[in-house]
Amino acid sequence: MKLLVFAHVPPPYHGQSYEVERLLNGYGGNHRERKRRESPGPANPFGVECYHVNARYSRTLEDVGEFQGTKIFLILFYCLQAIWCRFRYGVETLYYVPAPGKNFALYRDWLVMLICRPFYKRVIFHWLAGGMAKWLETTVSIRTRSLTYARMRDADLSIVLSEFNRRDAEKLTPRRVVAVAGGIPDPCPQFASEILPRRRARVAARNKILAGDFQVADEGAKIVNVLFLAHCTRDKGAFDAVAGVALANETLAAEKSPLRFRLTLAGGFASDTEEKELRELADRSDLRGVVEILGFISSERKGVALRDADIFCFPTYYLAESQPSNLIEALAFGLPVVTTRWRAIPEMFPPDYAGLVDPKSPDQIAGTLRRLAAEDLAGPLREVFLRRFTLDRHLANMAAAFRSVEE
User: Fold this and answer.
1) Is 133 strand, coil or helix?
2) Residues 51 and 85: beta-carbon distance below 8 Å
3) Is the model more confident about 71 or about 262?
4) 170 and 153 Cβ atoms separated by less than 8 Å
5) How far apart are CA 173 and CA 233, in angstroms?
6) Cα dihedral angle (294, 300, 305, 307), rounded to 10 degrees?
7) What's the CA gap between 328 and 146, in Å, rounded?
8) Structural domain boundaries of the chain?
9) What pLDDT is stored for residue 263 in this prediction?
10) How far apart are CA 397 and CA 183, in angstroms?
11) Per-residue pLDDT averaged across 231-250, rounded?
12) Is residue 43 very low, low, confident or very high in pLDDT (cuts 50, 70, 90)?
């Protein structure tokens, strides 16, 4: 099956661009490049050939979804590429990632569908952002809703990440909706031999401390390493993570416990104002030595941070949040996760999972951090990853969904 992938890959670095990159690599790369170089490329057991139009409109996170005059010309340029691929390579199916709830991004989708859709027999939408249905119902005008339906309704297939997101796709009345969970390559295949024993040893030492035995052999066990790994913005929960750790440490100090939480924030900034505010907060006298801000880090450094962490904290309430890949990475490393009851996130965890908190609730974060510090959850959470979120499973399910539109 031939598929025209009209979507961008990093940079900028965010969940959507990473997903498109994994998809292309998993299906043997961009066949436009392979045919130009007459290269056979890697083996592809999934039967999907991707012809990629790298529709990158933004250079930085600050530009994503914002209006710039040059973007109009880029849209037209990318659409011409897509039409050329349709006839040059005989591609009949268009794969497209609809915008989150932002006006200019939606206008971009209208224009792309107006120009490209008549040339393709089939169109597939992949809903990687959440909240579009509610945004259309509550925020935009009737005229905007009508134009959105006119340009984007009746897709041959809409793929969503979870059952929660099904409503976003159904709002535009596609012929069929399929839920396919995300997936990543296993970032720690050595989990059972190297990571699991260390996690269990540290939990056992912390439990001794919580039981009043302060004479543990490993002084490092008195520090609980908490990791926040995402764009360091307010609505992704960076500020709430700092507040939650500060509250947890205040309670431990009042109880005269030697146990303390230390927070590492890793990820880029989408706003100079928020970066300044967050760094000033971390520099507060009671948080010096407790909060460390790394900024954007490499893949290698990210792996080290996930390995060394004891708890992952991601109290997001981001408007377009769907199924965050950082939570999948945390599950792969067997990390207990503190996150929010927000959109599709609860579906990622076992029923009655103890790490869920309400959005904008640092007090709940503090209490949940203390509770999870004593829980041995590494094995069960790793099993969730292996059972639901591996890359091979994701690629196989996506390929089956793609082929179904031809059948």
Assistant:
1) helix
2) yes
3) 262
4) no
5) 34
6) 180
7) 36
8) 2-183+390-404, 191-388
9) 98
10) 10
11) 97
12) low
In three-state secondary structure terms, 99 is: coil
The label of the residue with tokens 């997101």 reads: 165
- The contacts of residue 256 (CB under 8 Å, 6+ apart) are none
Report residue 217 CA to chain centroid gap: 38
Return the bridge partners of 263, or none. 226, 291
Mean pLDDT computed over 81-103: 94
User: Taking the CB of residue 7, how many other CB atoms lie within 10 A of it?
Assistant: 23
**The two three-digit tokens of residue 273, written as one number:** 């104002």
Domain 191-388 has CATH 3.40.50.720: no
Task: Read off φ and ψ for residue 346, nearest 5 degrees.
Answer: -60, -25
- The CATH number for 2-183+390-404, chosen from 3.40.190.10, 3.40.50.2000, 3.40.830.10, 3.40.50.150, is 3.40.50.2000
Residues in the chain: 407
CA distances from 229 to 116, 160, 219, 323 (A): 37, 24, 26, 14
